[in-house]
Amino acid sequence: MGERAELLTESALKPRLTELSEHLDAPLALNVHLPFCPSRCLSCDRIAVVQHQPGEIDHYVTNLANEVARTSELMGHRRALSRVHFGGGSPNHLSELALATVFSHIGEHFDVDASTQFSMELNPRRTSRSQLNFLKGLGVEHIKLEVRDVDANVQKEIGRIQSLELLEDVISIAHGVKFKSIGMDYLIGLPGQSADSCEQSIEAILSLGPDWLVCLPFQRREALFPHQIAVDSQHLPSLTDRMVMFNQVQTDLTEAGYEWVGLNMFAKPDHELAVAQREGTLALNVLGYGTDANLSVLGVGLGALGELPGLVTQNQTSLADWHQQVELGSLSVASAVRSDDSEILQRNVMRSLMCRQSISVDSLTERQRENWIRPLARQGYAEETSGVYRLTELGLTMLPHVWTDSSPAFRAF
After folding, report:
1. CB atoms < 10 A from the CB of 398, how many?
2. For the chain, what is the domain count?
3. φ, ψ of residue 7 in degrees (nearest 5)
4. Residue from 404, 372, 377 nearest 390 by CA
5. CB 397 within 8 A of CB 247
6. For residue 229, how many other CB atoms are within 10 A of its CB?
7. 260 domain residue, yes or no
8. Which domain holds residue 347?
9. Cis before residue 89, ω within 30 degrees of 0?
10. Could you report the per-residue pLDDT of 197-244, keeping only the tens digit for each?
11. pLDDT tens-digit profile of 382-394?
12. CA–CA dist 127, 94 (Å, integer)
């Protein structure tokens, strides 16, 4: 996480979990990190492990079950979960047996039913008809395809080759399996991208017809992700080029009937997030956009993020340290960013702007307006009209590159 992160142990986190456990009606989500990948592309900014040995993956699944059990113990056995999200890595790199085992342990220790939303990130190159049917059978209803870009030259630059025909097949099969929601990502700022390639890519993506698309800026961070040193900085588009590309994405998708959700997502009008946007109930947390502003997120697995009131946590990012900590019978939490009441309110204000593009003047004190909103106005990103601060066209164009990021560890605004 960021520079303000501090070390955190289970004993320090326990009072927060105990307090949360006493509110049985508090909405709760589980963020399950499955870090394994068949290979690592240069755009990867996740806690990921390239692994092909079934024994090592089985070892991880065993300890993941232990961490799920410990989390459940601290929260009060069989707490209801409103959402379970599986991120990676490539979660679908795991075998069907391994995935079934993970689902089984979650169901053993938490209360999941037809109202629990199961979502999973998928590597399209590891997806098959039988796997999609299997995931649907496990209860997964919402999938996100990790695509990055559909342009062949950009794919070569980042080492992630997946043909448009492959994506067409995956999405066609997924529609046939009747997932409730099929989304994908598109990264801006990748090596080899240009305004022309972006236009062609978005045209191709529209032909695929995903239910939603999230448009995220890529940042080269070789200090945190050493493999990114191989990304040629000379081939990266400039900020101006990235702004032009985002405008292209926004124009093409909205003209095609998608609704602009939050700062950087585009969804079909009947999608739950588009509905939440229109109804003013769109929310944001470490899992991304959602419909519940009060959702607490518990992270399990290597490097998993969690979010409790006033606290964003991250688990151990070293696989060896993660195994050791869990095998000692402890949660693997390692660091956190704490927020005082003022910082919590500021985050809520900024997230409100990200979700609704506006906020009432009366909801803020004079000091809050001076410290938080007027700096945005001075930069031309927001303006006051009729008692409401609204993001300007410049703000809507620029802030997706400032306030959003492709790496999960940098989304906890």
Report:
1. 18
2. 2
3. -65, 145
4. 377
5. yes
6. 12
7. yes
8. 342-401
9. yes
10. 999 999 999 999 999 999 999 999 888 889 999 998 888 999 999 999
11. 999 999 999 999 9
12. 11
